[in-house]
Amino acid sequence: MSVVDPISATEALAHTSAVVVDARPQVVRHQGSLPGAVVVDPADISARFAPTPSGTFPVIDDLDTEINVVSVSSEAPRIAEQIADLGYTNVHYVDGGFRALRSRTR
Questions:
Q1: Is 34 within 8 Å of 18 (Cβ atoms)?
Q2: DSSP secondary structure string, 24-76?
Q3: Are 19 and 7 in contact (CB under 8 A)?
Q4: Among 38, 51, 70, 94, which is 20 to 30 Å from 13 by CA?
Q5: What is the pTM (predicted TM-score) of this model?
Q6: What confidence tier does 106 reach under pLDDT thresholds 50, 70, 90?
Q7: For residue 41, what are the CA distances in angstroms to 29, 70, 106?
Q8: Based on the number of CB atoms within 10 Å of its own CB, is 14 exposed (0-12), middle (13-18) or buried (19 or more)?
């Protein structure tokens, strides 16, 4: 059962306090970047988002911060769930991925 929901690119852009996580593999990042996004290779999600031995979270320190994940379409829901499984409570994946979000920022 999924613990994350999709969010449209329009909604994601309207949520200005949300953190956008660009979890596209490096081989597809040649398509461009999203200003202000946290770029994380999909293989590094657990290492970058898991709590440290002191109990703090290294990338985003508030577990209730809205996180909107962009990746290749087939991977975004899985990556968003992986982040949610680490304790983050407000995680979504952007429906349409990078292309949808990028097309709304031009």
A1: no
A2: --GGGGGG---TTPEE--GGGHHHHHSPPTTS--SS---TTS-EEEE--TTTH
A3: no
A4: 51
A5: 0.90
A6: low
A7: 10, 11, 24
A8: exposed
